[in-house]
Amino acid sequence: xxxxxxxxxxxxxxxxxxxxxxxxxxxxxxxxxxxxxxxxxxxxxxxxxxxxxxxxxxxxxxxxxxxxxxxxxxxxxxxxxxxxxxxxxxxxxxxxxxxxxxxxxxxxxxxxxxxxxxxxxxxxxxxxxxxxxxxxxxxxxxxxxxxxxxxxxxxxxxxxxxxxxxxxxxx
Length: 171
Prior knowledge:
This protein is of the alpha/beta class. It has helices at 42-56, 79-84, 87-90, 100-109, 131-144, 159-168, and strands at 4-13, 34-35, 61-67, 71-78, 116-125, 149-155. A hairpin with a 3-residue loop joins strand 3 (61-67) and strand 4 (71-78). Helix 4 (100-109) runs parallel beside helix 5 (131-144) and helix 5 packs parallel to helix 6. The longest helix is centred in the N-terminal third of the chain and has 15 residues, at 42-56. The chain starts with a strand and ends with a helix.
Protein backbone atom coordinates (compact mmCIF):
# COMPACT_ATOMS: atom_id res chain seq x y z
CA UNK A 1 0.00 0.00 0.00
CA UNK A 2 1.33 3.47 -0.88
CA UNK A 3 2.15 5.79 1.97
CA UNK A 4 -0.05 8.85 2.37
CA UNK A 5 1.64 12.07 3.35
CA UNK A 6 0.27 13.37 6.62
CA UNK A 7 -2.65 13.18 8.98
CA UNK A 8 -3.73 15.47 11.76
CA UNK A 9 -5.39 13.54 14.61
CA UNK A 10 -7.42 15.45 17.18
CA UNK A 11 -8.11 13.79 20.53
CA UNK A 12 -11.15 15.54 22.00
CA UNK A 13 -11.87 15.08 25.71
CA UNK A 14 -15.63 14.61 26.13
CA UNK A 15 -15.52 13.49 29.77
CA UNK A 16 -17.90 14.90 32.38
CA UNK A 17 -15.32 17.36 33.73
CA UNK A 18 -15.48 19.07 30.32
CA UNK A 19 -19.19 19.74 30.94
CA UNK A 20 -18.23 22.08 33.77
CA UNK A 21 -17.68 25.82 33.54
CA UNK A 22 -14.28 27.41 33.82
CA UNK A 23 -12.69 27.58 37.26
CA UNK A 24 -10.95 30.86 36.45
CA UNK A 25 -12.17 33.91 34.60
CA UNK A 26 -8.82 34.77 33.06
CA UNK A 27 -6.23 32.81 31.12
CA UNK A 28 -3.16 31.21 32.62
CA UNK A 29 -0.79 34.10 32.08
CA UNK A 30 -0.69 33.77 28.32
CA UNK A 31 0.48 30.16 28.47
CA UNK A 32 0.33 28.85 24.88
CA UNK A 33 -0.80 25.41 26.12
CA UNK A 34 -3.83 26.91 27.87
CA UNK A 35 -7.15 28.16 26.55
CA UNK A 36 -9.91 30.01 28.34
CA UNK A 37 -12.43 32.42 26.94
CA UNK A 38 -16.06 33.43 26.60
CA UNK A 39 -17.45 29.89 26.66
CA UNK A 40 -19.97 28.64 29.23
CA UNK A 41 -18.47 25.14 29.39
CA UNK A 42 -15.06 23.64 28.71
CA UNK A 43 -16.54 21.25 26.09
CA UNK A 44 -17.85 24.26 24.10
CA UNK A 45 -14.38 25.77 24.09
CA UNK A 46 -12.81 22.49 22.97
CA UNK A 47 -15.27 21.99 20.11
CA UNK A 48 -14.79 25.56 18.85
CA UNK A 49 -11.00 25.32 19.11
CA UNK A 50 -11.05 22.02 17.22
CA UNK A 51 -13.05 23.49 14.33
CA UNK A 52 -10.95 26.67 14.31
CA UNK A 53 -7.72 24.64 14.18
CA UNK A 54 -9.03 22.39 11.40
CA UNK A 55 -10.20 25.34 9.29
CA UNK A 56 -6.72 26.87 9.47
CA UNK A 57 -5.00 23.75 8.10
CA UNK A 58 -4.04 23.22 4.51
CA UNK A 59 -5.96 20.43 2.84
CA UNK A 60 -4.97 17.12 4.41
CA UNK A 61 -6.45 14.12 6.13
CA UNK A 62 -7.98 14.60 9.56
CA UNK A 63 -9.13 12.16 12.21
CA UNK A 64 -11.15 13.07 15.30
CA UNK A 65 -11.22 10.76 18.29
CA UNK A 66 -13.54 11.60 21.15
CA UNK A 67 -12.61 10.08 24.46
CA UNK A 68 -13.78 9.57 27.99
CA UNK A 69 -12.46 6.41 29.67
CA UNK A 70 -12.68 4.82 26.20
CA UNK A 71 -11.92 6.28 22.78
CA UNK A 72 -14.07 6.41 19.66
CA UNK A 73 -12.88 7.57 16.23
CA UNK A 74 -15.83 9.65 15.03
CA UNK A 75 -14.23 10.99 11.83
CA UNK A 76 -11.45 10.05 9.43
CA UNK A 77 -11.36 11.84 6.11
CA UNK A 78 -10.45 15.12 4.48
CA UNK A 79 -10.36 18.52 6.11
CA UNK A 80 -13.07 19.74 3.73
CA UNK A 81 -15.35 16.79 4.55
CA UNK A 82 -15.17 17.59 8.26
CA UNK A 83 -15.78 21.30 7.69
CA UNK A 84 -18.90 20.56 5.62
CA UNK A 85 -20.22 18.33 8.41
CA UNK A 86 -19.37 20.27 11.57
CA UNK A 87 -22.41 18.78 13.33
CA UNK A 88 -20.24 15.70 13.98
CA UNK A 89 -18.34 17.92 16.40
CA UNK A 90 -20.93 20.43 17.60
CA UNK A 91 -23.39 17.68 18.61
CA UNK A 92 -20.92 15.99 20.98
CA UNK A 93 -21.85 15.97 24.65
CA UNK A 94 -19.64 15.48 27.68
CA UNK A 95 -20.08 12.62 30.15
CA UNK A 96 -18.02 9.85 31.74
CA UNK A 97 -14.57 9.65 33.25
CA UNK A 98 -11.27 10.59 31.57
CA UNK A 99 -8.46 8.48 30.18
CA UNK A 100 -5.98 10.32 27.99
CA UNK A 101 -4.14 6.99 27.81
CA UNK A 102 -7.17 5.39 26.10
CA UNK A 103 -7.16 8.15 23.48
CA UNK A 104 -3.42 7.86 22.80
CA UNK A 105 -3.60 4.04 22.80
CA UNK A 106 -6.39 4.20 20.20
CA UNK A 107 -4.05 6.07 17.85
CA UNK A 108 -1.25 3.57 18.46
CA UNK A 109 -3.51 0.57 17.80
CA UNK A 110 -5.49 1.96 14.82
CA UNK A 111 -4.01 0.32 11.73
CA UNK A 112 -5.59 2.96 9.49
CA UNK A 113 -2.89 5.41 10.63
CA UNK A 114 -0.02 3.13 9.53
CA UNK A 115 -0.24 4.39 5.93
CA UNK A 116 0.82 7.93 6.87
CA UNK A 117 4.38 9.24 6.77
CA UNK A 118 3.62 11.90 9.36
CA UNK A 119 1.21 12.01 12.33
CA UNK A 120 0.41 15.22 14.16
CA UNK A 121 -1.67 14.55 17.26
CA UNK A 122 -3.47 17.38 19.07
CA UNK A 123 -4.90 16.69 22.51
CA UNK A 124 -7.74 18.99 23.60
CA UNK A 125 -8.41 18.34 27.29
CA UNK A 126 -8.61 19.80 30.77
CA UNK A 127 -5.88 17.29 31.67
CA UNK A 128 -7.81 15.65 34.49
CA UNK A 129 -6.40 12.17 33.86
CA UNK A 130 -3.89 9.67 35.22
CA UNK A 131 -0.40 11.11 34.65
CA UNK A 132 1.50 7.80 34.65
CA UNK A 133 -0.86 6.02 32.25
CA UNK A 134 -1.01 9.04 29.91
CA UNK A 135 2.80 9.26 29.88
CA UNK A 136 3.12 5.53 29.11
CA UNK A 137 0.61 5.81 26.27
CA UNK A 138 2.38 8.84 24.76
CA UNK A 139 5.71 7.01 24.85
CA UNK A 140 4.10 3.93 23.25
CA UNK A 141 2.71 6.07 20.42
CA UNK A 142 6.11 7.67 19.77
CA UNK A 143 7.78 4.24 19.92
CA UNK A 144 5.51 3.03 17.12
CA UNK A 145 5.57 6.33 15.18
CA UNK A 146 8.93 8.00 15.88
CA UNK A 147 8.06 10.68 13.30
CA UNK A 148 4.88 11.68 15.14
CA UNK A 149 4.38 14.73 17.31
CA UNK A 150 1.92 15.20 20.15
CA UNK A 151 0.76 18.69 21.14
CA UNK A 152 -1.75 19.69 23.81
CA UNK A 153 -4.15 22.53 24.39
CA UNK A 154 -5.32 22.59 27.99
CA UNK A 155 -8.84 23.89 28.52
CA UNK A 156 -9.14 25.69 31.90
CA UNK A 157 -5.61 24.98 33.03
CA UNK A 158 -4.83 23.59 36.47
CA UNK A 159 -1.44 22.52 37.83
CA UNK A 160 -2.49 18.87 37.45
CA UNK A 161 -3.77 19.41 33.91
CA UNK A 162 -0.62 21.28 32.86
CA UNK A 163 1.57 18.47 34.27
CA UNK A 164 -0.31 15.86 32.23
CA UNK A 165 -0.18 18.01 29.07
CA UNK A 166 3.55 18.60 29.46
CA UNK A 167 4.18 14.88 30.05
CA UNK A 168 2.39 13.78 26.87
CA UNK A 169 3.46 16.61 24.56
CA UNK A 170 6.29 15.22 22.47
CA UNK A 171 7.57 17.05 19.39
